[in-house]
Amino acid sequence: RMQMALFMYRLANSPKESTSNKYKVTDWDKGWNKECKQAINFLLANGVSTQKKAAYNASSFVTRAQMAAFMDRLYDNVLIK
Q1: How far is CA 60 from the centre of its chain?
Q2: Would you state the pLDDT for residue 52?
């Protein structure tokens, strides 16, 4: 999940994003670096990920179906704006 978050964040040209835990992700302090925190905030701020106030589970795998849903929301919410 973290690699997917970074991929999408970079695909969107790494927009400036906060590193604070403004979406109350419960596993926020798991050793993530600044860019990882920015990537997760970016996905949450733009509706690409919908896991606010929950664990992000950064080390979990992303299925093809989940990746397709993430890509669809990234396209609709970010890339075509």
Answers
A1: 13
A2: 75
Q: What six digits make up the tokens of 11?
A: 């695909």
Question: Which DSSP letter does residue 79 get?
Answer: I
Q: How crowded is residue 70: how many other Cβ atoms within 10 Å of its Cβ? A: 19
pLDDT value of position 30: 83
Mean pLDDT, the chain, rounded, equals 91
| DSSP 8-state secondary structure symbol assigned to residue 15 | -
DSSP letter at 1? -
What one-letter code names the amino acid at 5? Answer: A
Taking the C-alpha atoms of residue 73 and residue 71, their distance in angstroms, rounded to an integer, is: 5
Query: What are the C-alpha distances in Å from 16 to residues 6, 12, 29, 32, 39?
Result: 13, 11, 20, 17, 10
